[in-house]
Specification:
single chain; 593 residues; alpha+beta; four-stranded antiparallel beta sheet; globular; disordered N terminus
Amino acid sequence: MYKFKLPFIIFLLLNISLLSYSQLPPAFGSGYYSTAQTDALTRVFISPQRIVWKSSEAAVSNEAVLLLKGKNQAELGTKNACIMHSQGNDTASILLDYGKEIHGGLELNMGSSSRNEPSLVRIRFGESVGECNSTTDNSKWQVGFSTDDHAKRDIIIEIPRDGMIEIGNTGFRFVRIDLLRKDTKISIREARAILRYRDIPYLGSFRCSDERLNQIWMTGAYTVHLNMQEYLWDGIKRDRLVWLGDMHPEVATIMSVFGNNDVVTRSLDLACEQYPLPAWMNSMSAYSLWYIIIHHDWYMHNGDLTFLNKHKKYLLGLIDLISSKIANDGTENLSSQRFLDWPSSPNKEGVEAGYRALIVWAMRDAEKLCNILGDTQHAQTAQSCIKRMNAKIKDHNSLKQGASLMALAGILDPVKACDDVVSVGGAKGFSTFYGYYMLQALALAGRYDEATDVIRRFWGGMLDMGATTFWEDFDLDWTVNAARLDEITPPGKKDIHGDFGAYCYPGYRHSFCHGWASGPTAWMTEHILGIKVVDAGCKTIQIDPHLGDLDMAEGTFPTPYGIVTVKHVKDANGRVSTSVGAPKEINIIPPQL
């Protein structure tokens, strides 16, 4: 057996030394700052990978120097520096591409200037080229506009000469710099992105004979990794918050890639502090249901009874709250708001059916958790909730989100759910969040090949448009006559970022790094590699691969006892041979031939 560890920095394909400090310098003395906290995250500096655009040869020169590895040290003069010169009404501007979506800010290392005083510049961060070039209007949540909501991305600031300055904290891939001071010349030695991330290994891995699937798996893993800040966020530009429903696909990815990480437990603890009962998580009843489901899945992977007991009082109180709002005839009044995801919102009947199915799913997991905690009374309460809810089953109204939840909750035959709804139109009607549950419904129906094809088309469709992380929302129809996110949109083409989006994410407000879109990473580990946790704490794992048209698939899976490795190879007759390596504490159920 071997241990596969892919450090994050290798994933970025950069040769950068890391420094981390675990404590304050001795000069501060013990207790000098009683509120001092060390930074749990790591910072590295990344030079631009290419120059996307500059305003003119006269305004910007020697820009190629910005692509070189920097020295991180200020120096007098203008030697080996990019020169920006704004003259009259001509503003010197440059747009830089850092190669991948990252979280952090910008460090400018400035040389000499034509002024003794600081110079005024405008810094725009963008998840796309279009966003970098866009107008910011925080009063307009509409197509074509950017906002500074949750994280400032459009900043006008004075910068020093012969010195260094750090600017911004957001999610971005591109940076545009405009020299606003007229008749001024400045020199920039380095314009390095500051990447802020958790320096943790990729314990889980996935590799198969289809490179597109390999890239999708890693992109989902990377999307969640960027959102693993002090707490588990949903987005690094917008939605830098702990959203309990959005966390569920993220937690599934974390379990498949990183194993037990305290960003999950810290976030669940914080959520309980922020929304004490009888409040709903994030003020949304559906997200309190996801809180229960997350606890079940987390316990199954890690077997951490201490953490489960820590949340016992809240869990039991939540079960009582939910039960109190379900009548004997199956009518419930948990809350007036029914939310699954944004794209499903117009289909009120389908959302209602899916929401009720989510209650059943949560109460099914609640019953299991209560039995683990030794509370038979609340286990019976949860079972009673299920019985009452199933007395009134609503129609899914051809909503893929609703039908998928009904299949997962065990109240609709998965084959019928897929025949009638989920499979209709293939990837049409999929969403980045609930697409994970549509894939799971297809798996329940035994349609692994169909699900894999949807992954290639839907999530692969984002890659085709230049994505390096997965988005808040996506529709394959958007790609028709649309330019990639990493290019300036030509006349007559659509801007894949600025021209689309709806609800709370129109235009450039649309997040291009959203953790809830990472579902295929967890799905491919579970269903292509076939790694299924059977007993809590990964004490028993079943191997049940589904290669479909793949010739080979291999990977690793983190458990509390160490790494499980699997490899599946298909011979010329279509027969799959499997090899498995696992810690001695884990019972492996081999594939059924």
